[in-house]
Amino acid sequence: MKKIMSISPDSFTKEDVQLLCKRMDQLFDEGFYPHLEINREYSKHNPRLRGEIAHPKVFRWYLIRELYRLLSKGASIQLHQKRTRIALNDPTLLSHMDEEEWDFTKKKLFLFSPERVDLSINRLLHYTGTKPEHFQRYILFTNYGMHVEVFKERFPDAIKPDNEGVQMPAYHWIQPNNTGMSLINIGVGPSNAKTITDHISVLRPDAMIMVGHCGGLRNHQRIGDFVLASGYFRDDRVLDDVFPIGNPVIPNHLLNSYLKQALDQHGIEHRIGTVFTTANRNWEFSAKDTVQRIHQSRSVAIDMESGTVATNGFRYRVPHATLLSVSDKPLHGKPKLSQQAQEFYNRSKKLHLELVLETIEAVKSHHPEGLPNSSIRAINEPLMGGV
Questions:
Q1: How many CB atoms lie within 10 A of CB 288?
Q2: What is the 3 state secondary structure string of 300-347?
Q3: Dihedral pair phi/psi, residue 11, rounded to 5°
Q4: Which of 10, 193, 262, 335 could bond 308 through an S-S bridge, CB–CB 3.0 to 4.6 Å?
Q5: pLDDT tens sequence across 232-255
Q6: Full-model pTM
Q7: Which domains occur in the chain, in start order?
Q8: What is the pLDDT of residues 53-71, one digit of tens each?
């Protein structure tokens, strides 16, 4: 193992941290996983953190922020050249990515192995048609082209996919230090929601928000009303094998607070409650069992993505929230029919996205260094020493 650079907490600057990240970029470009050792004498139980990195340039903003925080608290940092990168077509790659071998509560330095990051970076390019370094700190998910059109109208200089035919096209409003927003049209269904959040999470975004439509389940809801998720009934099943169904998943409290402020400021009718996420788009064809679970869960809305996005946000320690708009009322004689749906979409699309954009601006103003997220870390899990 060859030492490349070290930084002492006694005398350091942000320029030192930036230089460290540039050296990490060089190591990765030369065919190595940059290896960091962080000594925290102030930590009684976890004084030494070790980890490897892939594609440090893609989320440099995050590394600079977190490494600077560690140094400010009294940690020292060493960068080493240690292990050669594994090619993505190497048969041994999979043995380094199996999450069943990880103990998430013990991953003190980085949540993901460098091989996992390397593969996810490649998959993001494939699925979204945009370079991973274009992704911003704030990620919006939709499954409607109309939200994409509103986003492009609002940000005409946004970076667009090289190929509009990609599976999950992404659009990026680029701002300094990655403080802009990225919108991804993930398509329909929980499998897509899991796929994209599996890969987005390696970028360590500051927030993920699902901007979608739902079926309203309460009698007094009207078409066009909004739903702010306070919890999720996970009937999608796609993550049950890797994340116990009994574990509670709730959105980030501060994100929800800012979303509610935006709704209240606009005087918009909305309900706060449980969102029922299903994998069955035609659940009405087997309504008896589904409706029983809806009633038992006291759900106020049903959709196909929100619970999945939230569960992966919780698993991967990314602050998340959900804002949905009621497009139909399947239990009250108002199913989603083509003409009425199009009229609703045209009325709601700009306001829906505007509420979320206002929320992100409030988050950036009050929490420029990222939302507090202790609620989605284990009690013994000081990831990178951040807030």
A1: 6
A2: CEEECCHHHHHHHHHHCCCCEEEEEEEEEEHHHCECCCHHHHHHHHHH
A3: -150, 105
A4: 193
A5: 999 999 999 989 888 899 999 999
A6: 0.91
A7: 2-95 (no CATH), 129-374 (3.40.50.1580)
A8: 999 999 999 999 999 999 9
